[in-house]
Amino acid sequence: MERPQLIQVDYHDFQSALRRAGDRGRRIDATDREGWMKWVQAHEIKEASFRSICLGRFARPQAVIIDDDSSWSGYYMYSVDDEACMKWQSTLE
Fold first, then answer.
1. DSSP-assigned letter for residue 44
2. Averaged pLDDT for residues 30-39
3. What is the mean pLDDT of the chain?
4. What's the Rg (C-alpha) of the chain?
5. In sequence order, what are the residues at sequence separation of 6 or more whose Cβ sits closer than 8 angstroms to the Cβ of residue 19?
6. How many CB atoms lie within 10 A of CB 58?
C-alpha cells in the first residue's frame, strides 16, 4: 500500500485556482457536510493526520477541496497568515 504524499504548492497559484473553482461551483468547503464527507471518503483522506501536520507548520490552517478535472483537483490545507499551502496527494489520483 502506497502512502499519500503531502505536496507544498505555491500559495498564490493556489489562490488563483481556488477562485476559478469557486467561480465554477467546484469548491467544496467544510460547511457543505454532505459533499465534504462524500469527497473525503471517496478519496481516502486522513483529515486528522493532515491537519495535525499542517498545524505544526502553519498558523491557523484552513481546509478546502477543489473538485474539478484540472491538476488542481484535491484536498488542501492553507494559511492566509503564512501564505502557504499543502495538498494531500493520495494514491488514488
1. T
2. 95
3. 91
4. 12
5. none
6. 19
User: What cell numbers appear for 25 in the block?
Assistant: 461551483
Average pLDDT over residues 71-81: 95
Residues in Cβ contact with 7 at an 8 Å cutoff, skipping those fewer than 6 apart: 86, 87, 89
Cβ atoms of 66 and 17 closer than 8 Å: yes
If phi > 0 it is left, if psi is from -120 to 50 it is alpha, else beta; for residue 56 that is alpha
Q: Which ranges constitute the DSSP H helices of 1-93?
A: 11-23, 33-42, 47-57
Q: 5-9 and 84-89 as β-strands: parallel, antiparallel, unpaired?
A: antiparallel
Helices (H) and strands (E) in the chain, counts: 3, 5
CA dihedral sign of residues 76, 80, 81, 85: positive
From the centroid of its chain, how far is CA 46? Answer: 12
